[in-house]
Amino acid sequence: MASSPRHAVGRIAGTTILDRVCGGVFALLLACSSQALSQDIRVTLLGTGDPTPSLERFGPGTLVEAAGQTLLFDAGRGTMQRLRQVGVSTGELDGIFLTHLHSDHVVGLVDVWLTGWVVDGRTTPLRVYGPVGTSALAEHLAKAFEYDIAIRTAEAGRSAQGVAIEVTEISGGYRWHADGVEVLAFDVDHAPVAPAFGFRVDSGERSVALSGDTRYSESLIRRAKGVDLLVHEVADAPAAFKQAHPDLPRLVHHTQPADAGRVFTAVAPKLAVYSHLVLAGGMRAEDLVGETRATYDGPLLVGEDLMTLTIADEVTVGTRRSSDQE
């Protein structure tokens, strides 16, 4: 049994045992400091749009980076281009999490999968976590592109592992863990789509919740309570348009600003951000904040593509591009 520092005598290689102990304590403090820094979360809105083709707002996609983990939530139109803009290779993705299987949330998955293999040279499987039906989606994608895959594998000798898709079908309550990062999937209300998930990501004391597609959701409120950042979808149209189209699916299957404000008030995040803007009838994004203020008076932003939110002691906002895109 080693003697206590106060009883230590002598020197070992010119250093006292007490020096070693103190040095070890200092190293531990540095390690703890580094660990605290690594708990910070960086969230990049890759796409903030809806199914309507747009050059300003690509399809839904959110990148979350924490403690060395790089996670993608949904892969809508243009996700691969946005990943390239922020300098992230598909080989760096530790997991792709799908909120549901609506086409606007998965249409970019093919690009991330195949372009990541062909151009990025990915040599590891693409790991995808999603609701029941995700395995069938992956199997049919492989079947649809089997000719392309066979030709490229034979001609270029590309990795067979790199074009594989490993699917884990999940349900509400599923938890994913790696290096101190936890992802929790929870059910939300996007009927008739079921299941549909929101996600919460925790890294140490930092946290972000992503609503997925949903109406006003008590489940979301429970799971997101007290997060630093809440990224929430929104749908709206001018009053006259809503009166003329009271059953329009793109409105009634989503959360309108006043209801989103009620969610924000109950969750009380340090910052609430709108993403996946489903706008109809000429509704303008800049009008969303005013309508939300009827039920919420806290910090709120309307997200834009490539907006980056860094969660540390505070949540800071910037715009992200890799050096070769500036």
List the topology elements:
Layout: E1 11-12, E2 15-16, H1 17-38, E3 41-47, E4 61-66, E5 69-73, H2 79-85, E6 95-97, H3 103-106, H4 109-118, E7 126-130, H5 134-144, H6 146-156, E8 165-169, E9 175-178, E10 181-187, E11 197-203, E12 206-210, H7 218-224, E13 229-236, H8 239-244, H9 249-252, H10 257-267, E14 271-279, H11 288-292, E15 300-302, E16 307-311, E17 315-319
Parallel strand pairs: 5-6, 6-7, 7-8, 12-13, 13-14, 14-15
Antiparallel strand pairs: 1-2, 3-4, 3-16, 4-5, 9-10, 10-11, 11-12, 16-17
Helix pairs in contact: 7-10
Keywords: Hydrolase
Protein name: MBL fold metallo-hydrolase
Domain Metallo-beta-lactamase: 58-256
Question: What does this 3D model show about the protein?
Answer:
- The chain is an alpha/beta fold and 326 residues long.
- It is built from eleven helices and 17 strands.
- The strands form three sheets. The chain has an eight-stranded mixed β-sheet with strand order 8-7-6-5-4-3-16-17.
- Helix 7 runs parallel beside helix 10 (257-267).
- It is globular.
- The termini are far apart.
- Keywords: Hydrolase.
- Residues 58-256 form the Metallo-beta-lactamase domain.
What's the tally of helices? 11
Biggest sheet features: 8 strands, mixed
Helix content: 25-40%
Mean pLDDT value: 87
Return the string of H and E elements: EEHEEEHEHHEHHEEEEEHEHHHEHEEE
User: What is the CATH first-level class name of the domain at 39-76 and 94-101 and 170-325?
Assistant: Alpha Beta
Q: Tell me how many strands there are.
A: 17
- Poorly predicted tracts of residues: 1-37
Helix and strand composition category? alpha/beta
* CATH second-level architecture of the domain at 39-76 and 94-101 and 170-325: 4-Layer Sandwich
Distance between the termini: 59 Å
> Order of strands in the sheet with the most strands?
8-7-6-5-4-3-16-17
- The fraction of residues assigned to DSSP E strands is 25-35%
**By CATH's scheme, which homologous superfamily of the domain at 39-76 and 94-101 and 170-325 applies?**
Ribonuclease Z/Hydroxyacylglutathione hydrolase-like
Apparent shape: globular
Protein name: MBL fold metallo-hydrolase
Pfam family, one: Anti-Pycsar_Apyc1
Domain Metallo-beta-lactamase: 58-256
Organism: Luteimonas vadosa
